[in-house]
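Service request form, structural biology core

Requester: graduate student, group of Dr. S.
Request type: structure prediction, single chain
Budget code: on file
Notes: please return the result as structure tokens.

Sequence provided:
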Amino acid sequence: MVHFKFFHGIVTQINDFTIGGGQNGEGEGCYKLMTVEDGTGNIVHFVISPTTYFVDNEIVSIGDSITGYYDGDAPVPLIYPPQYRALVVVKENNYQNVKVSFFNDQLISSDGQLKLNLSPFTPILLTNGQPFSKNPANRNLIVIYGPTTRSIPAQTTPYKIIVWC
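Core staff response, request fulfilled:
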């Protein structure tokens, strides 16, 4: 289980990021360093790798509002601003909400804030876009949803679920 943590803000810079010291340059251009500022002076650098999952395959540019999710238990270099390996990036929009979390056997998020009510029409996919045929309970999920109830936990019928295997 990944202990997802997040940072939300505006992208202020996107630069190429070099990994390792390979002689043939095969990794050049494959990694990016995305600088995100939250508006209160807090800054984070996200390392964007070829495996970073961008919800809806959105292209992120300078000035976009994003939320980057990373593994809160992963080791990080002791530098400022902090540098995290982005696992999931969400480009914010007004038409959908996204929750990245572990969902238990009752399909309640690990923070207890969201409960999923599945419909037979809810697409459940893998990160590669292929259908997921098992039960999504007790897994790390990327949930794309719209309106919720005002209960605690809030309940929703998701637009789409991506299973983070």
